[in-house]
Amino acid sequence: MGIEIRVDGLKKAFGRQTIWEDVSFTIPAGEISALLGPSGTGKSVFLKNLVGLLRPDRGHVYVGGRDVPRLRENELYDLRRQFGVLFQDGALFGSMNIYDNIAFPLREHTRKGEAEIKRIVLEKMEMVGLTGAEDKLPGEISGGMKKRAGLARALVLDPEIILADEPDSGLDPVRTAYLNQLFVDLNTDLGATFLIVTHDIGTARVLPDNLGLLFRRGLVMFGPREMVLSSTHPAVNQFFNARRQGPIGMAEEKDQAQLDDEGDAPPAMPAPIQPQLMPSDGRTRPGMRRPGQWLHEHGVTAPPGSFIDDEGRNWLTDWDRLTTGGHRPR
Ligand SMILES: Nc1ncnc2c1ncn2[C@@H]1O[C@H](COP(=O)(O)OP(=O)(O)OP(=O)(O)O)[C@@H](O)[C@H]1O
Ligand SMILES: [Mg+2]
Fold first, then answer.
1. Residue 236 binned pLDDT confidence (cut-offs 50, 70, 90)
2. Predicted structure pTM score
3. Is the pLDDT confidence value at 329 over 50?
């Protein structure tokens, strides 16, 4: 289950402004990946290239053996059935109530009857905590509610690939925690491939199996969570530890004078790697790895204090005990 996305030599420019180039990496099937980067580095543009809403200037996007930029309109229509996409602005139809917005893909892409559609729509609305908002228009609900309505709509076709552009922006911290758990559980249930764009370092550090960073017109790094979070690459270290010191400045890139001011201090020690979010009810997930596995295989020492949860349990040493016999992850 889930489909791999392989991006090869991708370049996108608008006029003379190159957004990014030479982007090549594979988003593994059935795993949760997150893409981060300073504002304006082209994360939303990247997602639109994956579903064929924008065409790259160069390169390939292979989804299940098909090269998206080379598909015709009718082929793209078929391809998009496999995707559930939550756009950054929610992209709800303003004149349609929330119920009809969420029902839209089912009416457009399936022959299901209204009773079946109602069952699915109400189930997804409950899942994202929107029960009771059926009759409201998008203009009558909060920004966070719009996000969750967009997410419910992205889920109704049980897609193989779920793309979510800042699903957590505009959500309060408690709802963000519920949303992250929902992603883990959905991934467990559907086995779908997830790519989530987020600015929330808290989310990025505990949710995904893989992390990527866009900066300076390219993909700086993409790989397993433990690789990225233990990295001392200056931009990666700065971004995932939310530090001021490093190459990323307020206006994206620092000028030489600013960098000279900071001197040649070595990158600070990466913060402890927390245990990854687990599926509810002690289930297992295809992309799940044993804590410390990547670090061990690559001879990298974990940052001090890693893999200890809020209750002081050590997931590195006690993994077997914590994942068997009535374990209930939070
Ligand atoms: N249709 C378009 N035509 C021209 N320029 C565009 C278009 N869409 C995006 N851009 C430009 O591409 C760049 C990247 O935009 P994008 O929205 O992908 O950034 P982002 O990384 O998603 O930022 P944020 O974190 O603020 O959402 C920006 O400079 C933007 O102005
Ligand atoms: Mg964006």
1. very high
2. 0.92
3. no
Among 152, 148, 100, 154, which residue's Cα sits nearest to residue 123?
152
Q: How far is the CA of 43 from the centre of ligand 2 (A)?
A: 5
If you measure from the C-alpha of residue 42 to the centroid of ligand 1, how many angstroms do you get, rounded to a whole number? 5
Q: Is residue 258 part of a domain?
A: no
| Ligand 1 site, residue 41, Cβ cutoff 6 A | yes
Q: How many A from CA of 187 to the centre of ligand 1? A: 28
Q: How far is the CA of 203 from the centre of ligand 1 (A)?
A: 22
Structure tokens at 285: 């997930």
Q: How far apart are CA 208 and CA 316, in angstroms?
A: 18
40: in domain? yes
The total domain count for the chain is 1
- In terms of Cβ atoms closer than 10 Å to its own Cβ (0-12, 13-18, 19+), residue 128 is buried
CA distances 294 to 11, 95, 279, Å, are 30, 49, 20
Full residue range of the structural domain in which residue 32 is found: 5-226
In this predicted structure, the answer to whether residue 326 has a pLDDT above a threshold of 60 is: no
Ligand 1 atom nearest to 15, measured from its CA: 4
Residue 244, in any domain of the structure: no
Q: In this predicted model, what pLDDT tens digit does every residue of 159-185 receive, in sequence order?
A: 999 999 998 887 888 888 988 999 999
- Binning pLDDT at 50, 70 and 90, where does residue 328 land? very low
Q: pLDDT class for 242, splitting at 50, 70, 90?
A: confident
Q: Which residue's CA lies nearest to atom 28 of ligand 1?
A: 40
C-beta of 45 in contact with ligand 1 (< 6 A): yes
Condensed to tens digits (0 to 9), the pLDDT of residues 315-324 reads 988 888 888 7
CATH (domain of 125): 3.40.50.300
DSSP assignments along 297-323, one per residue: HTTPPPPTTTTB-TT--BTTTSHHHHH
What ligand is nearest to the CA atom of residue 35?
Answer: 1
